[in-house]
Design a protein that fits this description.
single chain; 343 residues; alpha/beta; six-stranded parallel β-sheet; 19% strand; globular
Length: 343
C-alpha cells in the first residue's frame, strides 16, 4: 500500500517441514495477501515453500530486514541484509531476556530497535533497556480490511487467546512477572458479577482442565479457536460478530506498565467494537474512557462492561475513531519507515 517492494520470510522447525497442511496454510494465507512468489518458508536453512534461499540472499544485499521479534535467525541470511531493524512485540520478555544474556531474545545484530511497549525507556517503566534505544511503534491495522460491522449482540464480550502461551514467568530483581493465565484467574468470577455474556476462543492445554472447569463454573462460554479463527477471514468474522472485546494482558505488561496494546484489540476497534481491556499503562498515550475502557480491578471491569452496553453507540463510534487516529496502517507504517530509513 505504501509502494514498497515487500518480500516475506518465516523460519519454522523440522516438525512443520513434515506437515503438508502447515505448508499449504502458509501458501494460502500469503497468497491471500498478494505475496505469491514473494513468501518463503525456511527450515534448516532451506526453502520448503516459495523462492529459494539464494534468491533471498541476492535481494538482501540492497534491502532492509524488518525482523519481527527477531524471529529470522539464519546467520547466512541475516548477514546478507544491508540494514536490519528489529520490531519487538513481546515487551518485557525481550528486554529481560536480553539483559540476562539469553539467546532467545535475538536482540543483537540489528541496526535499529522498535517496540510496541511504548513506555520502555521512560522513567515510568522499570523494564531495562541495556543501553539500547527502543523506539515506539504501534500495532498497525489496515482499516479497509476491517470496516465497521454492526452487531445485535452488544452485550457479548469476546476475545481470542492462548491460556498460557509459549513463555514462562519472568524473574528479575527479586520480583516475578506473571502471564496472562495469572491475570485471567484474578478475573475469573467476572461473569458472576456482570449480567452480560463473556466468551473466549481459547487455546488451552488438556493439563489445565482445572482452570477450564473453573471458567465454565463461573459462566464463561469457551469456544475452540480452531473453529472460529482458523484463518484470517474466519478471525475477522468472529471479531465482527462480537459486541465488544474483553481481555486481560500478560502480567509482565500489566506490572511494568510498559504501554503494550494488543494487535487483536486494534481489529475490534476498527470494526467499531469497543474494548474493555486490562490497564498496561497505555493511558499515557491513548485516553481511555470511550471506545476503550481500561480496568485494574474486578469492580472496574464489571462497571466498564455495564457502561459499554448502556452507551453502546457512543463507544462504538469512539472505537473506530481510535483505530483511525492511532493504528491506521498507512500512518503507523509511513512513520515507521521514515524512522527506519526504509523507502
Amino acid at each position: 500500500r505504501l509502494g514498497l517492494d515487500v518480500w516475506f520470510a518465516e523460519e519454522v522447525d523440522r516438525s512443520t517441514r513434515q506437515d503438508p497442511d502447515a505448508v499449504g496454510w502458509f501458501r494460502a494465507v500469503t497468497g491471500r495477501f498478494g505475496l505469491e512468489g514473494r513468501a518463503t518458508l525456511l527450515s534448516d536453512g532451506e526453502a520448503i515453500e516459495g523462492p529459494a534461499l539464494e534468491e533471498l540472499l541476492h535481494l538482501a544485499s540492497d534491502a532492509t530486514l524488518v525482523n519481527i521479534s527477531g524471529h529470522l535467525t539464519l546467520p547466512r541470511l541475516l548477514r546478507a541484509f544491508r540494514r536490519r531493524v528489529m520490531v519487538d512485540i513481546d515487551p518485557g520478555f525481550t528486554q529481560f531476556w536480553h539483559q540476562e544474556g539469553l539467546a532467545g531474545a535475538n536482540v543483537d545484530g540489528h541496526d535499529l530497535h522498535f517496540t510496541i511497549g511504548e513506555l520502555i525507556g521512560t522513567a515510568r517503566c522499570p523494564i531495562p533497556t541495556s543501553g539500547i534505544e527502543w523506539r515506539p511503534v504501534r500495532q498497525p491495522v489496515v482499516l479497509e480490511d476491517w470496516p465497521v460491522a454492526d452487531s445485535a449482540q452488544h452485550d457479548r464480550f469476546t476475545t481470542v487467546g492462548t491460556w498460557r502461551g509459549p513463555f514462562g514467568p519472568i524473574e528479575h530483581g527479586g520480583l516475578t512477572y506473571g502471564l496472562k493465565v495469572h491475570e485471567f484467574r484474578k478475573l475469573i468470577e467476572l461473569p458472576r458479577r456482570s449480567p452480560h455474556r463473556f466468551e473466549i476462543a481459547l487455546d488451552i492445554h488438556p493439563g489445565d482442565d482445572g482452570d477450564l472447569a473453573a471458567l465454565h463454573e463461573n459462566g464463561w462460554r469457551i469456544v475452540d479457536p480452531r473453529d472460529v479463527a482458523f484463518d484470517p477471514d474466519a478471525f475477522r468474522v468472529y471479531v465482527q460478530g462480537s459486541g465488544a472485546e474483553f481481555s486481560v494482558a500478560q502480567g509482565v505488561y500489566v506490572d511494568t506498565r510498559c504501554g503494550w496494546f494488543s494487535d487483536r484489540t486494534t481489529r475490534y476497534l476498527a470494526s467499531g467494537k469497543p474494548a474493555l481491556v486490562q490497564d498496561t499503562g497505555f493511558g499515557e498515550w491513548l485516553a481511555p474512557g470511550e471506545g476503550v475502557i481500561a480496568f485494574r480491578t474486578m469492580e472496574e471491569a464489571a462497571d466498564g462492561a455495564a457502561d459499554i452496553v448502556a452507551r453502546y453507540p457512543v463507544h462504538s463510534a469512539a472505537a473506530r475513531r481510535i483505530a483511525e487516529e492511532h493504528f491506521d496502517s498507512d500512518r503507523v507504517l509511513a512513520r515507521f519507515c521514515e524512522e527506519a530509513g526504509i523507502g
